[in-house]
Design a protein that fits this description.
single chain, alpha+beta, Alpha-Beta Plaits, 35% helix, globular
Length: 89
């Protein structure tokens, strides 16, 4: 978690911030709803200006630096999903 917070996310902010990254949230998963060990230990939520910003950021030349750093914060192949917020409470 130390590298995630002190290196990985600052790198993402530096590279993707100017390209439309508005904020990020790092959630440490402590248990599944059934009380069992969760499949994931961390969920990283990135909020973008819009879908076009997200797509452009992933294709940016410097984006490779972020993805190359992933083995230092993940011990499994990360799973990436994209979606749109449809409601908030």
């Amino acid at each position: 978690m130390e590298h995630y917070l002190s290196n990985h996310m600052p790198l993402a902010e530096k590279i993707w911030g100017p390209l439309g990254l508005l904020k990020w949230e790092l959630v440490e998963v402590v248990a599944g709803v059934d009380g069992k060990q969760p499949t994931f230990s961390v969920v990283n939520i990135l909020t973008w200006n819009d879908g076009a910003s997200y797509s452009a950021a992933l294709k940016a030349d410097d984006a490779a630096r972020i993805f190359e750093d992933l083995p230092l914060v993940c011990n499994h192949e990360p799973i990436f999903v994209a979606g749109n917020v449809v409601a908030r409470g």
